[in-house]
Specification:
Elements: H1 2-14, E1 23-24, E2 36-41, E3 50-60, H2 64-72, H3 77-80, E4 89-96, E5 104-110, E6 113-125, E7 128-136, H4 138-145, E8 157-166, E9 169-182, H5 188-210
Antiparallel strand pairs: 1-2, 2-3, 3-9, 4-5, 5-6, 6-7, 7-8, 8-9
Domain HD-Zip IV C-terminal: 3-210
InterPro entries: HD-Zip_IV (IPR042160), HD-Zip_IV_C (IPR057993)
Pfam family, one: PDF2_C
């Protein structure tokens, strides 16, 4: 299933390894928002070419349920995401994947990007949550409606949302965002700057909204 491939790919992207080593990219080195990046090429299931991935973990005082509910709400998306800023976001399809109706797979459309849809999966339980997205084309969406599982390259991005446990008590949320771009017509250094700025801007807006 395409959504499952997206989630597995995101989990691989968020992990560190000797091959995909994360290095600090933001010059300010603020402890509250240190963005790290890595370079990838030839990963299975990804579009061809060189990709730059940026990730950052921040501590929030809000509960992980509040953060999850904010990020999964498509009406909030234009508030924090650059691509959907100023756009009307609507769900073209929504499939619940468990007894909690917040656990679901959706396909989202943006009024200012007719050629791109977003596949979204949200999942939550007491141990943590995630909200993960990947751009897809309308043709892929039509194939999904007919039950055709295409082996398409995906570039997932999104959030890991974990309760921040201090001793025996909950103390807010650990929010990790991962975003990636394909390096085209720019230098690798410029790509790092772009993807780092996207992550920093989004997280700052989310912090302002939920804290």
């Amino acid at each position: 299933m395409t959504a499952n491939k997206m989630v597995v790919s995101f989990c691989n992207d968020i992990c560190n390894s000797t091959y995909h080593h994360w290095t600090s990219s933001n010059k300010t080195r603020l402890k509250t928002m240190e963005v790290k990046t890595n370079k990838r090429r030839g990963d299975p299931g990804k579009p061809p070419g060189l990709h730059r991935t940026a990730g950052c973990t921040v501590e929030l005082i809000s509960s992980h349920n509040r953060v999850f509910d904010y990020l999964r709400d498509i009406q909030n998306r234009p508030q924090w995401e650059r691509m959907s800023s100023g756009s009307l976001v609507q769900a073209l399809a929504n499939i619940t994947t468990g007894p909690d109706p917040r656990n679901c797979i959706s396909v989202l459309a943006m009024s200012n990007h007719k050629e791109i849809l977003l596949l979204q999966e949200c999942c939550t339980d007491a141990t943590g949550s995630y909200v993960i997205f990947a751009p897809i084309t309308p043709d892929v969406f039509q194939s999904m409606l007919y039950g055709v599982d295409q082996d398409i390259p995906l570039m997932p991005f999104g959030f890991s949302i974990l309760p921040n446990v201090s001793g025996s008590t909950l103390d807010g949320t650990l929010l990790t965002m991962v975003f990636q771009i394909t390096v085209k017509n720019v230098s690798s250094k410029q790509a790092v700057e772009v993807v780092t700025q996207i992550v920093k801007e989004a997280l700052q807006k989310i912090i302002e909204a939920v804290n």
